[in-house]
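Fold description:
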Amino acid sequence: MDHECTSGTIPFLDLLIRKENNNISISVFRKPTHSGVYTHYSSFIPFQYKRQLVLTLLNRAYSICSSYELLHLEFEQLKTMLKRNGYTQHLLDNIIGRFLESEYNDKLSLLGPEPRKAYIRLPYIGDASEKAKGVITSCLSRIGCGSVRLITTYDYTRVGGCFPYKDRQPKHLTSGVVYKLTFNSCPVFYIGETARCSYARFSEHQRKRGPLLTEFTQHLVDNPSHKANFTDNFHIIKYGLNFTRTRKLAETLTIQEHADDTNMLNDKHKSIPLYL
């Protein structure tokens, strides 16, 4: 694709390609909307995540920049942005020095056996987690495990991670269910299904007028002394049935399970047929 530009530069993905005197140079490109906001140093996360953020940005610059001069300018710009996010000058200089040293040594070192990696999962609770990692590493070195690299992965770095289970939805708001209705004064029961809120469906069963009365409602009409309330007599059997056919099939299976029970009010012949 041809692209004509008067400034001698052209952005392409993460690259800023510049042409000067028939020479091509490449540096890191950032959009004008780039805010420079990264994970703040005061964030309650393991230190290795903060260090890895800096190393990721350094590695990106090292892989893109076509000259050491451009690399130096990019490192200075990264330090300016990261210091705005709470990272200290001393920490950044230390990480950059170690990064450049590792890149230089990797090129000179001979290929050798890769250290065995041992993974361990710990809950992250601040400094105590870092101390626990240090103690485990020290113990491994004392017992002579050889060339072992310990890698820790942390859980529960967010408050929500400490509470993995949500509160159960109130019964009267639950939808997409198969339910069982009973009475306080007699053993008969009714099996049904609904896509609406459970309490709305129960209220429909309480209506004693209309052309289409369920077996449950008809029993209430025929036996005025029999009572039922939502709290004690509406029992949810199956949850999470949001598709109509799935819900109908679940209702049919439940009715078939009670086919021999004479106390069931349902007409099992009206339920959706199962072609198995």
Q: What stands out?
A: Residues 89-108 form the longest helix (20 residues). Helices lie at 47-64, 68-84, 89-108, 127-142, 198-206, 215-222, 230-233, 244-257. Residues 173 and 197 are 5 Å apart (CA to CA).
